[in-house]
UniProtKB/TrEMBL annotation:
The lineage of its organism: Bacteria, Bacillati, Actinomycetota, Actinomycetes, Propionibacteriales. It is found in: Membrane. This is Ionic transporter y4hA. It is a multi-pass membrane protein. It comes from Aeromicrobium ginsengisoli. Keywords: Membrane, Transmembrane, Transmembrane helix. Its main location: membrane. The chain crosses the membrane at residues 12-28, 34-54, 66-89, 101-122, 134-155, 167-186, 218-237, 257-277, 289-311, 317-339, 346-364. Residues 34-188, 222-362 form the Sodium/calcium exchanger membrane region domain. It comes from the Bacteria. One of its GO terms (molecular function) is sodium:proton antiporter activity. The keyword Transmembrane helix applies.
Length: 366
């Protein structure tokens, strides 16, 4: 039964990316009716799930914490590509789309993924254990790059409004990318043990209860399907983006909701992966995914957007408003209190979920 399920899974995750790529080609540069938008959206969602599955296969092959890093980078590549393709359309609200999507990713990862992971790990009254050294370093990096790229533009005076000057944007891009790469080096080389799952006594958890890693051939096949799925995701998102924007306008909601929808779409499969890890009492992997994705979202998106400004016209709004600043501050303070002890209960999970709910509600009804 298990082998049959594995065969079905491998077939599904191999067929869907190719089918989604074909759908992308058929729908490219066409004015799609709603039924076609629905079909494209189904294949878009399937391609996202397939992409994350193949990233997990590669992650299982290379081990932790490289696995979490592969998955976070794969998801962020999708996010960056979606942002750039939507920004280049020059549609209404595109000048703030990067800010809205990156901030939504931070709120979803630091509150949503962390919250549901803690709830999954403590659902039967247990205490979730993780490594405070590694998780604290990740959180500090997230807070720093978020402040550099999303908070400071609100207060700088080089340009009118919450914008950076070209020089300021270049500095923020280099600083955020540099911090991200420095963190990756610490995570994978110098202090790798800080990011491995731990037991309640602080010792590193064993991998003996997990299936053997896939073969090198399977990993290379997954890499190929992952690339196909990423292209399909970007292309199909480009095809349905006008419909998303029209639906947001028709509902009378702010354009910032478009960024929230993109972030929710991209991070949903990663959330599922984090919850699976938490249910196996491997909360450290869940936190690696959450904070790694938040960090990569800023550290990779802002440099790409900065480079794209060379040929793109129009303003680039990065600074957060007062409501968002309050939510970001609350998230950072609460996250510090969650991470520092190295253990958490059901209460901490509920607090983070409440903050995420506040963000979603206020995004739709500011």
């Amino acid at each position: 039964m298990t082998s049959r399920l594995a065969v079905l899974t491998s077939r599904w995750t191999g067929i869907v990316p190719v089918a989604a790529l074909i759908v992308f080609g058929l729908a490219w540069h066409r004015d799609l009716p709603w039924i076609a938008v629905a079909v494209v959206s189904v294949f878009l969602g399937g391609a996202v799930l397939a992409a994350v599955h193949h990233a997990e296969v590669i992650a299982h092959r290379v081990g932790e914490p490289y696995g979490s890093l592969v998955l976070a980078v794969a998801v962020t590549v999708i996010e960056v590509a979606l942002i750039v393709t939507l920004v280049t359309t020059g549609s209404k609200g595109s000048e703030s789309l990067a800010r809205d999507t990156v901030f939504a990713a931070i709120m979803i990862t630091c509150n949503g993924i962390v919250g549901v992971s803690l709830l999954a790990a403590t659902r039967k009254g247990q205490v979730a254990h993780f490594n405070a050294e590694g998780t604290g370093a990740a959180l500090a990096t997230v807070g720093t790059v978020a402040t550099l790229c999303l908070v400071l533009p609100t207060f700088t005076t080089g340009r009118t409004g919450p914008e950076f000057t070209p020089g300021q944007l270049g500095f923020a891009a280099v600083a955020s990318l540099g911090l991200y790469l420095l963190f990756v080096g610490m995570q994978t080389v110098r202090h790798r043990d800080y990011f491995l799952p731990t037991r309640s006594d602080g010792s590193v958890a064993s991998d003996d209860d997990h299936a053997s890693p896939p073969s090198a051939r399977a990993a290379w096949l997954s890499l190929g399907f992952l690339l196909v799925a990423l292209v399909a995701v970007v292309g199909n998102a480009k095809n349905v983006s006008p419909s998303i924007e029209d639906a947001v306008d028709a509902a009378g909601m702010p354009q910032a909701v478009v960024g929230v929808i993109i972030a929710l779409l991209i991070l949903l499969p990663e959330t599922i992966a984090a919850v699976r890890a938490a249910r196996r009492k491997r909360v450290q992997i869940s936190l690696n995914l959450a904070y790694g994705s938040a960090m990569a979202s800023i550290g990779l998106t802002i440099p790409v957007i900065a480079i794209s400004q060379i040929w793109l016209d129009g303003p680039l709004v990065l600074g957060l408003g007062s409501t968002e600043l309050v939510l970001l501050s609350l998230t950072m303070v609460t996250s510090v209190l969650t991470v520092v002890p190295g253990r958490a209960t059901l209460l901490q999970g509920g607090i983070h979920i409440a903050i995420l709910g506040s963000f979603l509600f206020l995004a739709a009804s500011p």
